[in-house]
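Step 1: inspect the first sequence and its tokens.
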Amino acid sequence: MELELDGRRLARALEDHLARWRERTGIAVEVWALPAGDVPRAVAETVLLTVREALANVERHSGAATVAVALTAGRRGLRLTISDDGFGFEHRTAGRGLRVMRAGFAGIGGRLTVNGVPGGGTTVRGEVPRAALDRAALDGATAREERPLSGPGEDVLPPAG
């Protein structure tokens, strides 16, 4: 998968993806903020997939010249904002991509909103409260503890769930 974390921090994975996307599309990317620390893996994966989907929408539909990305994680939780200066849109129906992004954030205890203004660009905002981040961290630690150890040459899959 293009956005695999491979042991990298979320900020580094985002920087790498945004640089590749900018080179491929020619759309300018402004990075306003990235977290200094890391977040639970399930949250990081959801953020990466959301950024990927939002950027795909920008590329396909927006006509934008610039995209701005900000991601912060702190005492109050995680906040993601992706804004473009494209055509914007009216909120008559949510396409598959928007539904997937919303479902991803809901799955980690967060919320995602999309605000498009015709002629004024689109902003995607995701929030995950601190309590949900803490639960995700605990769930990730529990999953690692429950995983059986494998011997040399053995492949052991983590428990389903």
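Step 2: inspect the second sequence and its tokens, then contrast the two.
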Amino acid sequence: MEQNQKPIFDYHEETHAEKLARKSKESPFMIIGLGALAASVGYGIYSYKNRGQMSTSVFLMKFRVIAQGATVAALTAGMAYTLYRNNFDKKEVISPNVLSKNEH
């Protein structure tokens, strides 16, 4: 290879849909987290309109605590899933040498 020649890389720029599909396969709790985000924002908007005499700053502080709790719960569930998948959900691989002639 000549020194002046640069290597050719097969670079494919992902669209947003492709990136979302790839990330959802790698970590399925991301989709659950996005759904929870949309649900909590919807609930926040609804409860803000029906907050009564509560001041806006108190409402936002209360909503912030709820959002942080949901984030910690999602992170804990994701870590538990990853721990299970990496350590406990391993299937045993039986070597062909272990099988006897009658088991084939």
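Step 3: confirm your contrast with the notes below.
The chain has three helices and no strands. The mean pLDDT is 80.
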